[in-house]
Request: fold
Amino acid sequence: MSEKNTFLFGAVFLAATGGVALDHYSHTANIPAISNPAPARLPAAGANPCAANPCSANPCGANPCAANPCGAGYNPCAANPCAANPCAAYNPCAAYNPCGAANPCAARLNPRNLGNPCAAANPCAAYNPCSPCSPCSAGNPCGAGAINPCSANPCAAYNPCGAANPCAAYNPCAASPCAPAPIANPCAASNPCAAYNPCGAANPCSAN
Amino acid sequence: MSETTLKVRPGASGFDFDKGPAAITAVLFVIVGIAIAQAVDLHQAVLYGLGGLLGISLYHASFGFTGGWRRFSVEKRGRAMRAQLLMIAVAAAAFIPMLALGSPLGNPIVGAVAPVGTSVLVGAFLFGLGMQLGGGCGSGTLFTVGGGSTRMLLTLVFFIIGAVIGTAHLPMWLELPALPPMSLGREFGVGGGLAVTFGGLALVALITVIVEKRAHGSLEATPKAPREGVARLFHGPWPLVWTGLLLAGLNIATLLIAGHPWSITFGFGLWGAKIAQGIGIPVETWEFWNWAGPAKALGNSVLEDNTSVMNFGIVIGAAFAAALAGKFAPKVSVPMASLVAAAIGGILMGYGARLAFGCNIGAFFSGIASGSVHGWLWFVLAFAGSWIGIALRPAFGMDGFRK
Reply:
C-alpha cells in the first residue's frame, strides 16, 4: 500500500467517521422535533376521554382496536396478507411501510420509539399510508388525487379506514355514529379525532 | 505487498497477508460494531455484521456482476453468470415461501417487489451501461472500495451524486406508464411462483451453456485454486459457486432479520441527501424525501438505516479480506480517461438504480428471488445496457469487445 493511498483512504475514513458521528448525534439530540413533531393534547385526568370526542358514541368496549395495534409490538398488518397490500414492497418506501419489518410500530424493532408514526405525540399526517403525501401515493392506486382515502377507492380493503379493516366499524371514517361527516384523513391534524387517533398511545379506545 | 507482510505457515498451504492493515481493519470492524450496538441497538449491529460477512465473501470470490456479464458478452464464458443464477435460485427457494407466510419468524417480512414500468426500463438500462463504465455494480463498488481501489472510490462518489439526482427525478418518472407490481408467488401461488422462477433461471443458464459450447466446444473448467484449506479460507480465492450459495444464505438471513431483502443503493441516496443538506441544499423539500420512508431515514441517524449499516459492514469486511489476501490498495495511478469513465459510470448507476428500484442486488438478486417481475425486466434491460457499455469502454481506454 502506497503512502499516497494510505493518506487518501485515511482521510476518507476519518471524514466518513466524522460525518456519521455528527449525523448521529445531531439527530439523536433532536428526536422529538423529527420523530414526534407535536404533542397531542391529552384528555384531562379523570375526565371522560370520550366526552369531547366525536367518537364518543363509539362502543369502545367492543372495539377490536382495544388492544391498540400500535402497542406492545402488535402490528395490525402482521396478521393480514401483507403481500396483497398496495403499500407493500413495490413502493420506494417498502422497508418503512406499515406492514414492513421496519414498521416503527413494532415496538420490539424500535425499542427507543424513534420516528414512530404511531407515537402519541405524532399527528401521523405525514406517515398515514392513506395520505396523499404518503409514500404509497406515487406508486399505488391510492395516489392520483385521492383526497379522501376513506372513500371508495381501490385501496379500501387495505387502508386503515377500509371496510375490511377490523376497526372499520368503529373508526372515524366509517359510516358510523363516529363519523358525522366524511373526514379525509383520520390522522390529519385538522381531524377532531387527531388527539385520539387509532395509532395514538393516548387513544381513549385503547384504554377502554 | 507491504513491508509488514507476515508469512504464515510457509509452504504449499501457507499464505502471506498484510499484518498491519489486517490488524487495523479487524479491530476497526469490531469497534464499529460495538459503536452501532451502543448508539442504536443490537439489531443494527447484527445487520452490520451480516454486511461484514457479505463484504468478505464478495471480495474473496471477486463476486462481481460486472465482470461476469462482460466475460460472457465478450469471451462467451458463462461460469460466473451461472453462479449468479444459482445464487438467485437458492435465495428464491427460501424467499417465495417465506414471503407467502408473511411472518415466518414472527417479524413481518416484505419482498423486493416493484412496479413494472418505464422507470425500471430506463433505470436498468442506464445502470447496466454505467456499471461497465464505472467498473463495478452496487456491491462491486462497495467491496472494491473496501479493497482499497482509488478508482472505485471515485465511482462511489459519483454513484452517490447520481442517486441523489435520481431522488429528485423519481416522482416525475413514476408518472409515466407502468404496470402494477407483479409477484410470481402471488400470481401463481408458491409452487407456481417457484416453478416459473426456477424455469426462467434455468433457461438463462441453458442459454449461457449453449453460447459457451458453440464458442469454445466445451464448458470452462473451474480453475485450480493456488491454495487449499484454511489458507484458501483466509486468503482466497473462494470458489464462485460456494460463495454464491453463501451470499444466498446471507440474503435470506437479511430478509429474516431486517424484514426486507439485501439492498444497497438506498443508502447511497441517503448519504448523498444528508451531505447535500449539510451544504445547504434543501433536499427535505423534494417530494421523494417527503415520502414517509425516505423522510424517516433522512430525519433519523444514518445508523438507524438498515441499508447504510450493512453497506458500512461490506466496506470494512472487504478491507479486512483484502488485507488477509495481501492486496489492500494495490493500484495507485489511474489514467485520466478511466477516471472520467468511473465518474460517468457512477452517475449513471446512481441515477439508474433509483429509477429502477434497486441495483444488481436490490432489483436483480433480491427482486427475482422475491418473485418480482420487475427483477426480470431489470435483468433484460441492464444486460442490454451492459452490452452498450462494453462497446463504449474503448473510448475511455478500457478493453471492450476487442482487446
In short: Chain A touches chain B through 55 residues (CB under 8 Å). The longest helix of chain A spans residues 3-28. Residues 6 and 12 of chain A are 10 Å apart (CA to CA). The radius of gyration of chain A is 20 Å.
